[in-house]
Write a structure and sequence with these properties.
By secondary structure, this protein is of the alpha+beta class. The protein is built from ten helices and 24 strands. The protein is 25% helix and 28% strand.
Length: 365
Amino acid sequence: MAEFSLACSDIRIIGDCLVAPNANSPSAISRKMTFNLRGNGGNLVGSEWIAAEGDIVAETATDLENFIKSFGHSENPGGWSVRLNSPGGDVAGGIRLGELIRKLKLDTEIGATEPDAHGHWKRAPGHCASACAFAFLGGLSRAASGGELGVHQFYDEISLRDPSAKVFSSLDMSEHQFVSAMLIDYVFRMGVDPRFVSVAASTPPIEMQFLDDHLLDDLNVKWYPKEFDPWSIEPTGAGVIAITRSKDRTRTAKFSYFADGVPRLTIEDKRFDIDVERLNGALAVIEKVVAFDLDFPKDALKAKCCNGILILEFTLRGLDGKVISASKWPGVGVDGPRYMWGPFTYVLPKQNAEIAIGVASRNRV
């Protein structure tokens, strides 16, 4: 039975597509994917990432699992993403890597990692193609830009060298169907539109289609589960509130106006890793509340935990939908030691803010 691969061991750019080099050329020598923890010297969430560079092979997932275990962790210790820069490799290895990334609760992004001028590391442009594209889908959160993620057909090495070769038996055809079904099932389980597989299947194996921003969004390849939907309105009690929820439905933000006419923004966040002692410590050292380009006193924020849910209430006098729509930074957070920013910082949508919050202000609860 023929063996299938999703990628060349190396690729070069010709025009707008990627083409496999001659198998006998020096550049065709594969470089197995390696994993290194890199950082920019900061202490915020996202300051460190796993640089994953090279070709995906059958044991790449095992290599990543052992890498994580070397730090004494069984899953993402918090805020790490896998930054992929790879031409592809083994299709089954790519799927196994994606499955493990999801199991470890890691995020994914695309790009290279380079040393900076200060002895740390910086992110640089890169590509994630072929089998790497399937590994990328394993991320809980997936960051990609148009032109970074490439797909094409899986193929048999013999038929690629000699398209007229008679290498397919009925068993080989069955294998093709099995691989296609496996890819569709995997893509669906990762929360991506199954049309992703058909886009790959429509691109010849000696070419590479890099998805533009429209396709990345349309197929749910690019995915930010904590990103909020546009504001809407919901009736409550005798009035109406403006409300928005994150895509994964773990966060809810509500804008309410009570009889006193003072706007209150309440955020409920299902954070099962809440450290109450750390939360109280953070509340004690914040200097002020910052919301949509405006400053508020620190007592504008009240916080509590209830059954694994972090509940924040911001009393924001003078804030309305027009201010939110016109703000440069559409979010709410605090000023203080920067390692304390994370628990209280939320980026909220501008879309529909003026209309929804305006309705809420005229229909107080």
